[in-house]
Amino acid sequence: MPYALVNKADAFAEAFAKAVAEHRPFLIEVDVTALEPTPSPFVPPVHVPS
Which of 17, 35, 19 is nearest to 27 (CA)? Predict the structure, then answer.
């Protein structure tokens, strides 16, 4: 299976275009731990019934 590893946000468009051009299944792996800047964790407000 064709494959691309994306470890920079700027590289995604190129990997996506390559995947679409294949006209068959294509795996794009995104290494989110390598993306900068690292976002802070998001914890939505949750109401806990008492």
Answer: 19
Q: Compute CA distances 9 → 25, 37, 43, whole Å.
A: 22, 10, 23
Taking the C-alpha atoms of residue 19 and residue 26, their distance in angstroms, rounded to an integer, is 6
* Angstrom distance (rounded) from CA 24 to CA 21: 8
What pLDDT digit, counting tens, does each position of 1-50 carry? Answer: 999 999 999 999 999 999 999 999 999 999 988 888 876 777 778 888 87
Q: How far is 37 from 35, CA to CA, in rounded Å? A: 6
